[in-house]
Structure formats: C-alpha cells, structure tokens
Design a protein that fits this description.
The protein is an all-alpha fold and about 240 residues long. The protein has ten helices and no strands. It has a single domain, classed as Growth Hormone, Chain: A, CATH 1.20.1250.
Length: about 240
C-alpha cells in the first residue's frame, strides 16, 4: 500500500479548498452553475432542458465542455496515467497551467464585475474556472489515491463511510480500506466546506476571485521547495 506523505496531504487540502472556493463563487455569483462539481451540472443540464431555462443551460453546458477540455489538456501535460508520490514534482507543469487559468479567471472578473445572465463575461468566467478545475482533476487523478479527487467530496465521503462500516466489523476488516487516514478524509471535506463559507462571508467576487490563484502559487512554490530539499519526504512504496 502507498502511504500519503505530509507534503502530499497539504497539497490535497489546498486543492480541495480551491475546489470548494471556486464552486461557491461560481454558484453564488455566476448563476446556478458549478465549475468543479460537474455531477451537479449534469443535473442542471437536464432540468434546464425541461424548464426551458437558457441561463442555466448555457452555464452548465459551457462548464461541462470546459472542464472536459481542461482535464484532457491536464492529462496531456502530465503525460502519463500514474505519477508516484516521489515524482510529484512532475505535476508542476500541470499546476502551472492551472495557475495561468486561475490568473485569467481573476483578471476576467476585474474586467467584467457585473456579469449578466448570458453575457460574454459570464461565459468566459465559467469556462476559465471549469478548465482550471479540469486540469486540477487530471493532476490529482494521476496520483491514484482511491477516493480522493479534490474536485468534489462524494467519493471521499463514501470512503469514510466504508471505513466506519468495516471498522464496526473489526480492526482487521478496515485495515486496507484506504491509504488516506480518516483524519485527512475529514480534513478534505472540512476544507471544502470552510472555503465555501469564507466566500459567502466575504461576499465580494472581485476580491474572492483573486484568492485561488494566489493560494495555488504559494502552495506549488512551497511544494517544489520541499520536494527539492527533502526528496524522501514522500513515501512512494507500494505493496
């Protein structure tokens, strides 16, 4: 089994917080649309067709297509289906691409502070946010950590439930449920919720749209520095 190291855990926490932040910002300020949680957009797409709601239909469709394109581009940049924790620095180009998209997202929001229902500004913001989250999804997926994708918490919650269910049958039954500690699973969900709460409390999209790019830049630079100075901080052994 592969164990998740401290720096890898920190990265996952920041990415989960970014996903919750961007989703909360998009949903509250760009209409009923998610830029990370794409299952929600599939629901919105079906409901929008039934209700004839053009605003929701356009937002969901743009987000889905942009997310798919971002995921494909992210996978192309990563260049392989699986990345060992010891080689996590190889994900830096993908995160740099995500950072560029998030910078574009922040700049676009400063240029179009008052987004209309189907305005060019709204469509561009949805596309940039969803593409950035798609790149993130591809990078995290390459780490192959079961139940952890950071874009949404459904699989993470499910993994936690499975752990507690098997743990009730005895310690041995739950030993190999996940390489991720239950505490980290809970922390990922908490980061997702807390970031959404902060977005709501601040309530100023022109301010909150800048935070994701800044947070990702600091995190990636810190990660690269740690990986360079202490390469054995990651435990990439598998059994």
């Amino acid at each position: 089994m592969r164990f998740v190291g401290r720096s890898e855990s920190s990265l996952l926490l920041v990415l989960a917080a970014l996903a919750g932040w961007i989703d909360a910002l998009s949903f509250t300020a760009l209409g009923k649309v998610f830029t990370s949680f794409q299952s929600g957009n599939l629901i919105f797409l079906g409901l929008a067709v039934d209700e004839g709601n053009g605003e929701v239909l356009v937002g969901a469709a743009v987000s889905l297509v942009a997310f798919l394109c971002g995921t494909a581009l992210g996978a192309y940049v990563v260049g392989r289906a699986e990345v060992e924790a010891s080689a996590i620095r190889s994900l830096a180009p993908a995160f740099a691409l995500q950072l560029a998209l998030l910078v574009g997202f922040a700049v676009c929001w400063q240029l179009f502070p008052d987004v209309g229902a189907n305005s060019a500004g709204r469509i561009m913001l949805v596309a940039l946010g969803a593409a950035a989250m798609g790149v993130q999804g591809a990078a995290v997926f390459a780490l192959r950590i079961p139940g952890v994708v950071t874009n949404a918490m459904t699989a993470t919650l499910m993994l936690g439930g499975i752990f507690f269910g098997l743990r009730a049958r005895g310690r041995a039954a739950a030993q190999r449920v996940s390489e991720v500690p239950v505490v980290l699973l809970a922390a990922l969900c908490a980061a997702y919720v807390l970031s959404a709460l902060i977005v709501g409390v601040i309530g100023r999209p022109q301010v909150t749209s800048v935070i994701p790019a800044a947070a990702l830049a600091v995190t990636v630079l810190s990660l690269l520095n740690v990986a360079r100075t202490t390469p054995d901080v990651f435990h990439g052994a598998r059994s």
